Amino acid sequence: MRRALGTLGCCLALLLPLLPATRGVPHRLRRQPPGNGPGRRGAADAACKNRPLDLVFIIDSSRSVRPEEFEKVKVFLSEMIDTLDVGERTTRVAVMNYASTVKVEFPLRTYFDKASMKEAVSRIQPLSAGTMTGLAIQAAMDEVFTEEMGTRPANFNIPKVVIVVTDGRPQDQVENVAANARTAGIEIYAVGVGRADMQSLRIMASEPLDEHVFYVETYGVIEKLTAKFRETFCAANTCALGTHDCEQLCVSNGGSYLCDCYEGYTLNPDKRTCSAVDVCAPGRHECDQICVSNNGSYVCECFEGYTLNPDKKTCSAMDMCAPGRHDCAQVCRRNGGSYSCDCFEGFTLNPDKKTCSAVDMCAPGRHDCEQVCVRDDLFYTCDCYQGYVLNPDKKTCSKATTSSLVTNEEACKCEAIAALQDSVTSRLEALSTKHILFLTCSALYCCFKGSCFGGSWGLHTSQTKAFS
Asked: Is residue 268's pLDDT more than 80?
């Protein structure tokens, strides 16, 4: 076993090709290029160094695993740790132990050196119960692959990897749980030993299955897996060696590499450098009105008079005429996301387009009076010049006329006045004193010696010389 381990050098073949997921480049384990046989093993080992990983081992310690077999699993874990580039900034390792229950032996944030990890592995004790593999994978998602427990943030592009080692058939619904884990970006390797159910291994593992499902007959030969991983997956990793010229991301591609860019950037035609993507270009964003670029991402905003809805994408017009939102003196009229001011009837909008002044309703052109317009607060009435009367339409005027016809009542009055005048005349003639009689008219119609005139008459005397 130790001789086999010596051939591993620095390479953990199982984990080497797990590079950060990039657009169009899924996690894939790549086979060693032809010609890299035993005679060239030393050169291959020297070049083999895995990229940083967040790696979780899930080991089965159910009743079917005998104590001495479980000890061999622990040795296997220690040997795997020896081949890893362990560290806070490189590969972080967690170990979970499961049977009918699940125990997190140590999370990703606990140890960053090989000696401490191996010491912790040596203290693991079997749980000796059922085989709840689905429960263990779910616990890995809920309790281990979190930033609180040491998983690096998604924008670090550190692969999340699970290696399940089991010798039995899951006693729970592992298929759906494993599918959810893969959807969440976790790559699953299934290692079966002895009585392990191959169909269950294939259900839980990632695609392609021939690169993610492994089997050994007994725990006594589990070291075969290490040799097979080296043979199958260990290739010169130009990205890990730092001999590439990629500006941002290097993606291993067999014995070669490809350059890629962080999210929000695009690869330039030189296939090496990257430029920031205009995330606000048409068709790239979901903003209803305004897209604002924000360090490789974007935020949505709205035009003046609109407010951003809770979905942070669409906009709704504000009620600009709500109290306190406008500066109109009298009437505010909503106009989409804006507003305009107006005035009550009888007022006109001033040049500032906000305040109002009372209208002179009798100004030329504002009324329909034929002769005289009389202003009455915000309204008006029509009137006529002297000698004219207002027609029933209350607008036009007609000339006033004195009727030549006398009503019966007026005729009676005239007869009475005529009789009075005859009496007065008789008396005047009999007066011994000489007076001059003046008659003045004070009624609307007066009669004198059988004739009627406009006006009324009054009797005045003034002493003077007697008639001769």
From this structure: yes
Is 141 in contact with 184 (CB distance < 8 Å)? yes
Q: Rounded to the nearest 5°, which phi and psi values hold at 419?
A: -60, -40
Q: What whole-number distance in Å separates Cα of residue 184 and Cα of residue 176?
A: 12
Question: pLDDT (tens digit, 9 = 90+) per residue, 326-370?
Answer: 889 999 988 876 889 999 887 889 999 999 988 888 888 778 899
Residues 192, 169 contacting (CB under 8 angstroms)? no
Beta-strand relationship, 445-448 and 388-390: unpaired
pTM: 0.44
pLDDT for 81: 85
Q: Which residues contact 254 (CB under 8 A, 6 or more apart)?
A: 30, 33, 235
Q: Is the pLDDT of residue 113 over 70?
A: yes
Return d(Cα 129, Cα 110) in angstroms, integer: 27
Of residues 166 and 20, the one with the higher pLDDT is: 166
323's tokens: 């109290």
Percent of the chain exceeding pLDDT 70 equals 70
**Spatial contact of 18 and 239, defined as CB atoms under 8 Å apart:** no
CB count within 10 Å of CB 77 equals 23
Three-state DSSP at 419 gives helix
Residue 221: what pLDDT?
79
CA 302 from chain centre, in angstroms, equals: 10
Percent of the chain with pLDDT over 90: 35
- Eight-class DSSP state of 141: I
Mean pLDDT of 81-94: 86
Q: What's the pLDDT at 273?
A: 92
In order, the DSSP letters of 97-133 are: EESSSEEEEE-TTT--SHHHHHHHHHT-----S---H
Angle value at C-alpha 33, between 32 and 37, nearest 5 degrees: 75
Cα–Cα dist 162/227, whole Å: 19
CA–CA separation, 92 vs 106, rounded Å? Answer: 11
Residue 423 confidence (pLDDT): 72
Q: Distances in Å between the alpha carbon of 380 and those of 134, 362, 368, 372, 391?
A: 91, 7, 10, 10, 16
